[in-house]
Design a protein that fits this description.
heterodimer; A: 290 residues; alpha/beta; six-stranded mixed β-sheet; 10 strands; globular; B: 301 residues; alpha+beta; Alpha-Beta Plaits; 2 domains; four-stranded antiparallel β-sheet; 10 helices
Chain lengths: 290, 301
């Protein structure tokens, strides 16, 4: 996906449905039947003080994709995630989530947007004074879920991430990988169509990282779009998925998944371990989902 | 339903965790409410006392000190002829001294007894029909002379004392006292408000992780704000409750026992229940304001 010049941008601002792909411009007034889950059009983010974090980034992510965003520190990766949950707003350009223009979502509706997007961070953001169960339940409580809903959903999601035996442990009694699993469980408990992960393996060793990636892959196979921001190029290369590379706020590479293959989560884990040269030990949590 | 339970339990959790600032705020609210709870009835009572003095309609006309009994008695009929005057009562030197002795006690009383001569003048108690005519009667006894100085209807009249003067003096004093106490109460209210604001601010800081998580998973702004709001109001309610308990104890132990005394009788004051409702209400309003202000400033949601 090439970067667009200002001329094209101006034209798009005047008539927004006009797209870069020629086959789409034939029906300029209509959005595609299923809009991309994430779409950035010439998004530019400028922080107070003048630092340009994203510069005219245009990208489309289809539903069900598993993609990576890579780049050195300060390249705008985290800003990208923040713009998608409307924590940061672009100075110019547009951002669409499932066809909805974030610029047109009122402040009051932002929480509703965030309920449809799961977010996972490098530092887990777990509440230290609550158990694993309560940490996940908290995410449901604060969006007004009923008690019965919480009671059915929380154990189910904790089983999915393989923590069914640690329900009543506190975060500091868990390993880093387990904490990240709790954080993923919390992000995914509502089965959002989009999951954003900002350096999910940044604090973890390679073996644990594969476990986390495997979990994210499993979530992706349920139909959820997963966007992982990372600087771990080796891991990304082995994953063989679509990769967006950012450098100083600009999108410098959008490499489609040429080597993409449909594999089960077990096959995925085995391949990853083999390619990264790590053993079988670590968190495999009994892969039964295929 | 489960929401409100969640809010209240979150608020209690926060209060327990930040006990020190919460207690500071609770104590300040308590002192403020206690002060107001004492001041409002006292001000009310002193006001009604001042009004009571004003209502006592009458004048006292004092003779010159060197007036003889005959000279003094000559004034009486003149006073009786004035309009609105209903009754004129002659007070002899002896009667005045006796009355004075009745009012004072102890050392002063014995020293009055040791006096060689009677230092008090003859006087008249003049009763009039209506308080509004006080001024007219006073003017009639001492019509203003050509040089602006008043010239009494009889040279023996030295001074006309008017209960209004006392009432006015009393009113000035209570008025000043009232202003002072209102300023004090206002300062205390501001202090309570700021301390509650501070408590909530610390609470927001202590719970910044929770707030962050709530925002991430899509809790609505008011869902995030409510626990803090409730926490502030709880502080107000606790402070007010302690103050009310102390006030109630004070009422039972002191005021109710005084009720048999004639001294207190007739002093109208604020009824207890409306006073308490007003105080608790204002505590809640102040604490809600305090937390609301902080939330606006420090909780960017």
């Amino acid at each position: 996906m090439a970067l667009l010049g200002t001329r094209a941008r101006r034209r798009r601002d005047a008539a927004s449905p006009d797209r870069r792909d020629s086959h789409r411009s034939e029906e300029p007034a209509r959005e595609p039947a299923t809009p991309p889950i994430v779409e950035l059009r010439e998004a530019t983010v400028v922080y107070p003080g003048g630092h340009v974090a994203l510069e005219r980034v245009s990208v489309e992510v289809a539903r069900g994709e598993f993609l990576f965003v890579v780049g050195p520190t300060g390249c705008g990766k985290s800003t990208l995630i923040k713009t998608l949950i409307k924590e940061v707003e672009p100075a110019s350009g547009k951002i669409f989530i499932a066809g909805r223009d974030l610029g047109r979502i009122s402040e009051k509706k932002v929480p509703l947007l965030r309920r449809r997007i799961g977010t996972v961070f490098q530092d887990f953001k777990l509440l230290p004074n609550r158990t694993v169960y309560d940490n996940v339940a908290y995410a449901l409580q604060v969006i007004g879920a009923s008690r019965s809903e919480i009671r059915s959903k929380v154990p189910e999601i904790l089983r999915l991430v393989g923590l069914q035996t640690k329900l009543h442990n506190y975060p500091d009694e868990l390993s880093g990988g387990e904490q990240q699993r709790v954080s993923i469980a919390r992000a995914f408990v509502n089965h959002p169509p989009l999951l954003l992960a900002d350096e999910p393996t940044g604090n973890l060793d390679p073996v644990t990282s594969i476990g986390i990636m495997q979990l994210l892959y499993r979530i992706n196979r349920t139909g959820t779009t997963v966007l992982v921001v990372t600087h771990d190029r080796e891991m990304v290369d082995k994953m063989r998925r679509r990769v967006l590379a950012l450098e100083e706020g600009r999108l410098v590479r959008d490499q489609a998944a040429g080597l993409y293959q449909d594999e089960s989560t077990t096959e995925f884990a085995v391949r990853m371990r083999a390619e990264l040269g790590v053993g079988d030990e670590g968190h495999t949590n009994g892969d039964t989902v295929h | 339903m489960s929401r409100s339970v969640f809010f209240v339990s979150e608020a209690f959790r926060a209060l327990r965790r930040s006990a020190a600032p919460s207690i500071a705020a609770i104590v300040t609210i308590m002192v403020t409410i206690l002060l107001l709870g004492v001041l409002i009835p006292v001000l009310n009572a002193s006001n009604s006392a001042a009004e009571g003095v004003r209502e006592q309609i009458g004048l006292r006309v004092f003779m010159q000190l060197d007036a003889t009994r005959a000279q003094a008695e000559r004034v009486g009929p003149k006073l009786e002829q004035i309009d609105y005057v209903t009754k004129v009562h002659f007070v002899s030197k002896e009667a005045a001294l006796k009355r004075l002795k009745g009012k004072v006690s102890g050392d002063l009383k014995s020293s009055i007894g040791e006096l060689n001569s009677n230092p008090l003048p003859f006087a008249y108690d003049v009763t009039i029909d209506d308080a509004d005519n006080l001024e007219a009667v006073s003017q009639a006894i001492q019509p203003p002379g050509p040089n602006g100085k008043s010239r009494p209807i009889d040279p023996m009249i030295a001074k006309v004392s008017d209960s209004r003067e006392q009432a006015n003096a009393l009113r000035t004093v209570t008025g000043n006292l009232k202003t002072f106490l209102i300023v004090l109460a206002a300062l205390l209210l501001v202090a309570s408000l700021l301390l509650i604001a501070n408590t909530i601010r610390l609470s927001i800081y202590a719970r910044r992780r929770e707030v962050e998580v709530m925002r991430l998973v899509g809790a609505t702004n008011w869902f995030i704000r409510w626990p803090f709001m409730i926490e502030g109001v709880l502080v107000g309610i606790f402070g007010a409750a302690i103050a009310v308990a102390i006030l109630w104890a004070g009422k039972v132990i002191i005021i109710d026992k005084l009720n048999g005394f004639t001294l207190i009788n007739g002093l109208s004051t604020v009824a207890f229940v409306p006073l308490i409702i007003g105080l608790v209400g204002s505590a809640i309003v102040v604490s809600a304001l305090g937390s609301g202000l902080t939330l606006r400033r420090f909780l960017r949601v």
